[in-house]
Amino acid sequence: MPRKRPSAEEFEAGLRAGDRVTLSRAITLAESRLASDRHLAQEVMARVLPRTGGARRIGLTGVPGAGKSTTIEALGVWLVERGHKVAVLAIDPSSTRHGGSILGDKTRMHRLSALEDAYIRPSPTSGVLGGVARRTREAMVLCEAAGFDVIIVESVGVGQSEAELAHLVDCVLLLLVPGAGDELQGIKRGIVEIADVMVVNKADGDALKAARRAASDYRHALRMLPASTPGWKTPVLTASAAEGTGLAETWQAIEDHRAHMEESGELERRRDAQQLGWLRQQVEEAVLEAFHGRPGVAEALAEARKAVHEHTATVPQAAEAVLRAGFGAADAPSAT
Ligand code: GDP
Fold this sequence. Notes:
Elements: H1 8-16, H2 20-31, H3 35-48, E1 56-62, H4 68-81, E2 86-91, H5 110-113, E3 118-123, H6 136-145, E4 150-156, H7 162-166, E5 171-176, H8 189-194, E6 197-200, H9 208-222, E7 236-238, H10 247-264, H11 266-293, H12 297-309, H13 315-327
Helix pairs in contact: 1-3, 2-6, 12-13
The site of guanosine-5'-diphosphate (GDP) has 15 residues, from helix 4.
């Protein structure tokens, strides 16, 4: 049944009351590309922003199959049992093609999703590098406005999204799996470098020994890498999301990292850099969209594609034609 769209005041009141239907609608609004939705979304953000920023913003990354959703479920339930309100901005596996197996979409985090104090928002990641959705930042702020004090942003650690994730959250948790041989081989160095906490998962059964060895290898390897956060030594823990071991230690490491960030002034510095990144992203997105919306640009782009494909123009020539179509011959920036 279609409902009337709430006003900015109603959105704010609903969020303040912790109403999850309002929260879902607010995130959908923030994700919308419609100009009228945008204005309302901005108004909602302006109203709630001053009350936000206090949550633990945690990024969780790791290769497909590392145990991200099992970990979020176990840690999330553990946190809710201790009085936290946990929001998860999860990857929607049905929208992600990452080469790995797509595991149990329907059963993902079912225990956590049944809890009153947990909120799980699967985000479509299509068209986004690596797996952090376009409006994750806004979604995170809206979750905070709705009273969630722990926000977990899930990302597929396939090597492109790690910088993006570090720009969104305060603490990056990298989930690893024990494997044979050189432990750093299977994982992109870039991810290891931004990890504030590393957890070797699946430390259970026959894999327990291998997990401990892997943790020790990682500790060793980390000595040769720059710190993810100035003055911080990234701890490498072992855990079993399946058996629920290592959860307290993982949370403690996240809290220790938080304390270090606050004491060193790094939290403020990082948040400030994130705000500036957000500003740049907003301007650049708006400029790009405005450009593509100009009359003649879509046609010029189609023609340029054809010309490049058929080798009737060089790429710089084709690009210039598109720019001229959008800006006019006199104002077009040079493509070369
Ligand atoms: P994701 O792709 O990173 O989200 O990984 P999943 O959480 O879906 O887990 C992938 C597979 O590993 C599933 O079959 C899980 O049951 C299994 N798994 C996850 N955590 C553990 C663990 O701690 N121990 C063991 N033995 N298996 C695990």
